[in-house]
Amino acid sequence: MSKPSPKETDLYAPVKAMLEARGYEVKAEIEDCDVVAVKPEAPTVIVELKLGFTLDLVLQGINRQNLTDDVYIAVPAPDTRAKRRNWWARQKGYIKLCRMLGLGLLLVTAKRVDVLLDPAPYAPRKNSGRRTRLMAEFTSRAGDPNTGGTTRTKIVTAYRQDALRLAVALNEQSEMKVSDLRDQTGIAKTASILQKDHYDWFARTARGVYALTDAGVEALEVYADILPSLRDEGAQTDQEA
User: Fold this and answer.
1) Do 171 and 95 share a structural domain?
2) Helix axes 214-222, 158-171, angle to 10 degrees
3) In this structure, what are the phi and psi dihedrals at residue 132, rounded to the nearest 5 degrees?
4) Domain enclosing residue 167, as ranges
5) Of 107, 145, 171, 217, whose CA is between 20 and 30 Å from 210?
């Protein structure tokens, strides 16, 4: 005999039992709200039930926030290996989204309800280091060599632009000293870029002397369309590739 298909109503009894254990009086389907729980001297709790974590469920929860701050969205716990694998891959993102929106999140089985997140005001912590790197990259990048939404092509960073400037200079000579390259290009971190050689464009031919590799020559062809915009720009900072 096949297992009966789950229904949203299957979630109600466990959620009601959990809330009643916390001292709430619970009723269903009040003014379009799936679950409403009331307790003296406590904010009203609203829970919206769905069989899966969907945009509709999230929007439903957001709409209930004009009634109370304590809004939860509830979904059934995965009951197969494939569903569990899919849920665990996404759970962190689901929790983060709910936290940002001030929603609580419940995971429901027939016997228990796990509170993955309680509703609370969201105050994101700013990452000052990341913001500094963002602005440094923005100001040091010459022009706008990339297209927004790019996923399958390599991003032209300020670091890559500096490496291309060095490649252009080396392409005009068989080899050059680091000091001469630095003086000609104005790139303060010339030695670091050549030594790290993230792109395999440079080869050390003697102490303090470098030449362009075949990969470097090929890179000048690949990025030929952006080279003109680099020639008249000042030196860039040494950002990671």
Assistant:
1) no
2) 120
3) -60, -45
4) 143-231
5) 145
Residues 147, 226, single domain; the answer is: yes
pLDDT at 72: 95
**Low pLDDT (below 50) residues in the chain:** 234-241
Sign of torsion over alpha carbons 23, 69, 62, 38: positive
CATH of the domain at 38: 3.40.50
Place of tokens 């440079």: 202
Residue 134 in any domain: the answer is no
Q: Across the chain, which distance is largest between two alpha carbons, in Å?
A: 84
Q: Is residue 213 part of a domain?
A: yes
Q: Which residues pair with 235 in a beta bridge?
A: none
Could you write out the DSSP letters of every residue in 150-201?
--SS----HHHHHHHHHHHHHHTSS-EEHHHHHHHH--TTHHHHHHH-TTS-
Rg (CA), the chain: 29
